[in-house]
Specification:
It contains 4 helices and 2 strands. The protein is mostly helical. A two-stranded antiparallel sheet has the order 1-2.
């Protein structure tokens, strides 16, 4: 699933970077640029990093992004 739409970063990329040791706690945005565009995904990125470091899967709250929904309908 794409987590950061600005930089097209997926949850799998984030998890893999954490497993490789490239992302210390709270360092994901610097390593992958996730969350450095509009910032809308920052909480989800942090939740994925924290869960991966803890050894579990995050339970992100549902996101409602009206701008993306409107763009998808217009295509």
């Amino acid at each position: 699933m794409i987590v950061c739409h600005c930089h097209r970063i997926t949850d799998r990329e984030i998890r893999a970077a954490v497993r490789r040791g490239e992302i210390p706690e709270g360092g994901c945005c610097r390593a992958l640029l996730a969350g450095t565009g509009c910032g809308g995904c920052r909480r989800l990125v942090d939740a994925i990093v924290d869960a991966e470091l803890a050894g579990g899967a995050p339970r992100p709250e549902p996101l409602y992004l009206p701008a993306f929904a409107a763009a998808a309908r217009s295509q």
